[in-house]
Automatic annotation (TrEMBL):
ABC transmembrane type-1 domain residues: 74-278
Keywords: Cell membrane, Membrane, Transmembrane, Transmembrane helix, Transport
Species classification: Bacteria, Bacillati, Bacillota, Bacilli, Bacillales
Family: Belongs to the binding-protein-dependent transport system permease family.
Main localisation: membrane
Subcellular localization, as worded in the UniProt entry: Cell membrane
Membrane topology recorded in Swiss-Prot or TrEMBL: Multi-pass membrane protein
Database matches in InterPro entries: MetI-like (IPR000515), MetI-like_sf (IPR035906)
Membrane-traversing stretches: 12-33, 69-97, 109-128, 140-161, 182-207, 258-278
PROSITE patterns on file: ABC_TM1 (PS50928)
Protein's gene: ycjP_2
Presence of the UniProt keyword Aminoacyl-tRNA synthetase in the record: no
Protein name in UniProt: Inner membrane ABC transporter permease protein YcjP
Cited PANTHER family: ABC TRANSPORTER PERMEASE PROTEIN MG189-RELATED-RELATED, POLYGALACTURONAN_RHAMNOGALACTURONAN TRANSPORT SYSTEM PERMEASE PROTEIN YTCP
Length: 293
């Protein structure tokens, strides 16, 4: 039986201490943002830096949630994260299931074409021309349809479907199930780990939509939350941020910085809350396609 020496204990203790310090350093910025967002306006203006507020207040959050600009942006981001993620999972899983069936004609050609999309990036202009010609500019679907699925995710999920025994499909077909029935009633329930993993990836991507909104959206009421957040965070001397800052803090004595911090917290917390709900399946889902049994 191996016994740990004093040197081993000191080494493990030093490693643990170093990891704790690194974790604290990484968590401190988010803690500071959260603390400032809950700080009262008077205290924030009086202090140079706020580590622990003497008086916690929800004034910044109350005003953000009473501001039409912010509410509309939060609604757009919520729509993208929910509807976009659901559609992406449907398209990705359906495409991966079809490609995993050996009877599909032209399967190898389709796989090569999908693989090429992961190797070559068309850039900015071709996708913009496609969105423009489809008359999707200044529509919510311009933020969903161009990124509805990922070739890499399709290939990974196909590897997961390849590991499902063909006998399950054959037994369902004997019982009269159609291809859609097999996919919906058998394949999808068995694919919860992969759906949870990819659903989290899609949800984070949709919630953080920024660059595509800059390209395709000019209507104020269709701007996602990240655009409004960016306009809050840029220098208040610029015209765009000045407009947003004035609309946010115009009639009440709330410092713009506390509004910025509250907006950052609101934009970050939903994604942080999603992961614990999917953690049960996420650990299995990240290994999707890595092992074919």
């Amino acid at each position: 039986m191996n016994q740990r020496t004093t040197a081993d204990k000191w080494f493990e203790g030093s490693i643990l201490t170093a990891l704790i310090l690194v974790a604290l350093v990484m968590l401190f910025p988010f803690y500071y943002i959260t603390a400032v967002s809950f700080t009262s306006p008077i205290e924030y203006l009086q202090k140079t830096i706020v580590i622990f507020p003497e008086k916690w207040t929800l004034d910044s959050y109350r005003y953000l949630f009473s501001n039409n600009v912010f509410i509309q942006a939060a609604g757009v981001s919520t729509f993208l994260a929910t509807v976009g993620t659901a559609l992406s999972l449907i398209i990705t899983s359906a495409g991966a299931y079809a490609l995993s069936r050996k009877r599909l004609q032209g399967r190898r050609v389709l796989l090569i074409l999908i693989l090429m999309t992961t190797l070559f990036n068309p850039g900015i202009i071709p996708p913009y021309l496609v969105v423009r010609d489809l008359h999707l500019i200044n529509t919510i679907w311009a933020l969903i349809l161009p990124v509805l699925t990922s070739g890499w995710y399709v290939i990974l999920m196909k590897g997961f479907f390849d590991s499902i025994p063909d006998e399950l499909e054959e037994a369902a077909k004997i019982d009269g199930a159609t291809d859609m029935g097999v996919w919906f009633r058998i394949i999808l329930p068995l694919s919860l780990p992969s759906l949870a993993a990819f659903g989290l990836f899609y949800a984070v991507a949709y919630w953080n939509t920024f660059f595509s909104a800059v390209l395709y959206i000019t209507k104020p009421d269709l701007r996602p939350l990240q655009i409004v957040l960016q306009q809050l965070l840029i220098d208040s001397s610029s015209s765009s941020s000045g407009e947003i800052a004035n609309s946010m803090a115009g009639e009440i004595a709330i410092p713009t910085d506390t509004l910025k911090m509250a907006a950052v917290v609101i934009a970050t917390v939903p994604i942080l809350l999603v992961y614990p709900l999917l953690q049960k399946h996420f650990a299995k889902g990240v290994m999707v396609g890595s092992i074919k049994g």
